UniProtKB/TrEMBL annotation:
This is tRNA (N6-threonylcarbamoyladenosine(37)-N6)-methyltransferase TrmO. The keyword S-adenosyl-L-methionine applies. NCBIfam families: tRNA_TsaA. Residues 1-148 form the TsaA-like domain. It comes from Persicirhabdus sediminis. Keywords: S-adenosyl-L-methionine. Belongs to the tRNA methyltransferase O family.
Amino acid sequence: MDTIATLRSCYGEKFGVPRQSGLVDEAWGKLIFEPHYRNPDAVRGLEGFSHVWLIYSFHHTFNKDGSKREFQPTVRPPRLGGNEKLGVFATRSPFRPNPIGLSVVRLDRIELNSPKGPVLHLRGVDLVNGTPILDIKPYLPYADALPEASAGFAPDAPNQLEIKWECPIPKDFSSETIQLIENTLALDPRPPYQVNSANQREYGCLINGRNVRWMVQDNEIWILSI
């Protein structure tokens, strides 16, 4: 398949990216089309939709030589603490036979006069910066929203931890940047096997181009430095 666009997002590395779309509305992304697809006609009518589906490649899951990883029939979902194995097709793990992802995100606006052609400004993204986009489709509430559907082992949104600031908030931070950082960390990005650890380990996430250092203490996330 062709890569039709690249997503530029507020998340500079995999660690810290929300595990589902829509959990952090402040998580922004800019979809930049590849030269061959920079035709405004290709997005004509898309402005009438509030949300879009993104189909993309999990490009960080490939081996260093560019090959796909060997197929594994089971994975350990973070939602189950990483302790229980489930079939890969019963999860949204990025480690799949074909590393393809699917996310619904909010379409904030379409910039038509950019030097790089149409640019889609998105919110609620769960994608790392540089993600290759394979396709875009409009979200249709009457067909895509099924409130009566069952959700297996993940019936509800994940719990959120309280955020505390140990360091001063940088003066150049807007209120939206503060909310982006707080709402991202509140989802507890730690690997599941470290969640119940007694060790007070320091972590770091690259958010909005800033290295945010933090730790967890008494079920609270303390931001140590920016």
